[in-house]
Each structure stands twice: as structure tokens, then as C-alpha cells.
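#struct-help
A.M.: can someone run this one for me? Single chain, 456 residues.
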Amino acid sequence: MILRPYQSEIARAVLDSIEGRLGLTFSVEIARQGGKNELSAHLEVLLLTMFMAKGGNSIKCSPTFKPQTMISMMRLKQRLDDFGFNGIWSTEMGYVIRLGAARQIFLSAEESSSVVGHTADILLEIDESQDVNKDKYTKEFRPMASSTNATTIHYGTTWDDATLLEAIKQSNLVQEKQDGIRRHFRFDWQAVAQYNPAYLAFVEAEKDRLGEDHPLFRSQYALLPIRSGGGFLSRSQIANMQGNHCRLHGRQARSSIYVAGIDIAGESEVTEDLELTVGGRDATVITIAEVILPQADNLMVEPDIRVVEHYSWVGKKHAGLYSQIVEILKHTWGCIHIIVDATGIGEPVASFLRHALGNRVHAFKFTQLSKSKLGFGLLAAVNSGRLKVYGADGSQGYRELFFELERARSVYRPNQTINFFVDPSEGHDDYMISLALCVEAASLCAPRKATGIVRE
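D.P.: on it. C-alpha cells below:
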């Protein structure tokens, strides 16, 4: 088996624990796409081969059955074929791969899964351990190794300091100091890149695109844990958003590309003659941005986004805004992509706008996953310096946007998603959400090979 040196180091430690019946628990952090899954598959092939006559069970669990467990099973089957076992291995019950008398069992760690009763004689593997529920592991998976004192290995990338992987890692580091036996293995993107120049080029491009402080880059490539409950944006990030271009009040050239993000106020929060203040009500906000596409010879670079205008309404019924919004989007700016908050009361607004403006309108429904994607997209645009807001003009809209950005909080969830918001006791997040939707709209602008006229 040909493994990279850092993979071989981990494999040898695991085999020593199994052969010596030490029952050690290992934690392994390898940067995303650094070969963690290949290491696991190679270990599984080796152990099936070693125990094919004697027999025994290894167990691997993943956070979900589809797709994670199924991908692991497929990879093991491919590696068994690669090593000449085609036609020799077999499957049982849809989740067991057998070679001789040895079996590799694949289970789901989803909270609803029924896994009690299985025993790991040889090895217990926890894949993407940072996404596995601590109680599920402690009550149902950890006991699988108890009767045989089987070796256990946790694979993953770091997230925050409350995950199962982080707990195992910290415990291992304490035990290492006590007995000198290495239990925690950490290889970040720079360690992986020493053996793969293509990987180095890819990750450096990701660092430029996302920014070195982006949560996904920090956790998946730099392997640095995130601490929840802090500010969504730092002061330096907010300062980096402040541009020196002028605020505009209409389209400057027919070749210019404009997009819009619209956050819709809830009808229940709409009352007449109410000013937008920190203690006030929700607002319907439109953010307009000009998109600057990269040069034709550099199409891998993300476009620049320059916010050029804001519109907001408080105390206005949606039906009374339709004609005004259409006029702004179609005639004042000629926006080519418009993303509208279509959650709840926003759905009929998005439907009306799509009927009036066609497929340039995209409905956006907020869910835990979609909002997380929106937040990560906003962070990437900020960190890379691609997002700039017009120069300070003393307007209410400018002040409100930066007020919200300064007070925005973030919560990082165990499933590697993020929530970002302004605490209701401090104000609203209408301008921030509208900005994030505008950034998402900008991502839809495909690079053009030739300059043409944007048709309305």
C-alpha cells in the first residue's frame, strides 16, 4: 500500500494498538481533501486481509447514511478490487462488507438510527467526528469497543470547541503528556501540500477567495477551532468594506452590470409613519450593487461588488410598494439578477416581482442551511476585499447598515453551519440581510466573453 508519510504514521500507530491489544483511542485531523478517507479505506482493506482467516468485526460510523456511509462503502469496495479481491469479497444486509471471516460494518450515527447490539472486535472508526452527537457516541457507539478493548479512531476537521472530536482531542493531549504515547495526529493544509503541488495551488486560491480568517478556511484547511458567540464581523473586516466610490442614484452606463438583494419586512410589523430607529420596526430594504467582472484572461477570480445605493421603507404595505420597486429594479438600474427574501410573507412579493420582471428574479427561502450559505458567502466577499460600500455620506441608510454590521453576532452550529443576526434588543438586521442577498445575486453573474448591451 502506497500512502503519504503522514498517512503511514497514523496507520502504523493504529496497527500497533490493534496488534498490541492496547485499546487506544486516536484523534486524527487532516485538512479537507488531504487523504483522510483514503487512509480509512486502506486501513479497512489491510485489517480485512489480516483477519480474513481468524475473523472479527470492524465498525465505521458516519454522521449520515446517505451520502457519507454509502460513499465509505463504495470506496472500500473499489480498494478491495484494486488489491485483487474482486469476486472474493461479498456484502451482507446492505451495510456489511465481508472478506473471508472478517467483516467491515458501516453504520449511521444519525440520532434516529438503531445501532445497539453491534460489537467491534478489531477497530471502531468515527468518521467526521465533529458532526457526531456526543450523547449518541457515548451511549451507543463507545460501548461497541468495550468487551474487546478495541482500538478507536476519530477522523475529522475541527469546528468549534464543543464538538465530540475536540473533546477526544483534548483528552488525548492530556494522556500524551502522561505516558508519552501519541494519540492525536494533526496535519493541516501546509503539511498535506508538501506532497501534492496541485493541492497547494488549490488551497492558496481558496485562501484568496475566502480569506484566511473565513470560518470554513480556518476549520477545514488550517484546522483551527472556531469559538462561538462572538461578533460576526471584526472591526478590521468592517473597515475593509468601506469604499471610496460615490453613491449613485441610477445606472451610469448601459454596459454596467447591476444586481439587487431585497429583504422583506413582515406585514405584522408594518405600521404607518414609523421611522427606522434602533428600537423601531422592521424595514423592507433593497441593496443595489455594481458587479465588476474579472478580465477575460483571469476568469477564475471572483467579481468585485460595489454597493452603490440603498432603498428602505418602513410602515408601507407590500402591495403599495410593487410599482415603485419594479420601477427601481427595471428602469432605474436594469438589474440582471435580483434575489428576494421569499420566506413567509415574502413569498407573494417574490412571486409578483418574478411575474413583472421575469427570470431575473430569484426567490430565496431562509432555512438553517441556506442562511448559513448566505453568511459564508458574505464573509468570503468581505475577507477577499471584493465587497465595498459607497463612501460615507451621512445618510440614514449608510449609518444603519454599519450599525447592524457592528452589532451582528454569530453562532456556529455543530453541523458546520453558521447563524448571523442582530439581537432584537439592539436593533434589526434588514440592511445586513439585504446586503448578503445582494452578494448572493452577484455570484450569479457569469463572466462574459464579450461586452454587450444588457437588455431590459
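A.M.: thanks! Residues 228-442 form a domain with the Nucleotidyltransferase; domain 5 fold (CATH 3.30.420.240).
D.P.: also worth noting: The longest strand covers residues 304-313.
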